[in-house]
Amino acid sequence: MKYAIISDIHANLQALNAVFADMQPYADAVVCLGDIVGYNANPIECLEIIKQRCDVVIAGNHDQAACGVRLYDDFSAYAREAMDWTRAQLTPEWIHYLRSLPCTAEFGDCWMAAHGSPRETDEYLFHSTHFEESFAHLYAYMSDRRACFVGHTHLPMIWECTTAGLVTPTLVNNLVTQMQSQHRYIINPGSVGQPRYGGPEASYVLLDSETLVVEFRFVPYDVTAAQERIYEAMLPLALAERLAVGH
Ligand SMILES: [Zn+2]
Hints:
Blueprint: E1 2-6, H1 13-23, E2 29-32, H2 43-53, E3 56-57, H3 61-66, H4 77-89, H5 92-99, E4 104-107, E5 111-114, H6 128-141, E6 147-149, E7 157-161, E8 167-171, E9 176-178, E10 184-188, E11 202-208, E12 213-219, H7 223-232, H8 237-245
Parallel strand pairs: 1-2, 2-3, 5-6, 6-10
Antiparallel strand pairs: 1-11, 4-5, 7-8, 7-10, 9-12, 11-12
Helix pairs in contact: 7-8
Bound molecules: zinc ion.
């Protein structure tokens, strides 16, 4: 079984369409790790596609803010402004849909999905200590899980935990990785709609659940068209500019 795992779409329709076109020949099922809305200017179109085409969808912190499950006064000024705009676009039906999304999910026998970390939707995993605590959480509650897929930081990365408990990060310069069956992993596919790894391409992951091969895919898309939508919606210019540089 081949899964496509996508995250942090953030209402970028052009990037989302490009990612679905790229995965078309490979993916048997699609898992979305949340943050469908926020930042960019096509929330409704992205919600329609995600609802229709994804087999598993979980909530991100922007999704929760959009439907009123959490406050967003801790967001950056640009994110707050975009969230005010996003909330004005949502019909009661979409608010109901976003409210219905779970915070974690399991897909297949050995895999789980979360937005921030295995224990918290809004927890950013950046440093080794964060990962050690997250792996401890995985082992404590899900000893037979091979990997947890997370989004939230928008950084494509693999963190590997050996049987001895040693945690090492792998920057994703090697686009195809063979998982070791005895090890545990936290894997971030990066962001579809607002990349922050220093390049403009949308990223996502293909997981072959039989061979345990993880492939990171980087997909070019029409950044200019996405920027034009931001200008038309009169969202902050910085949100358009950052798409071109992946920051
Ligand atoms: Zn996000």
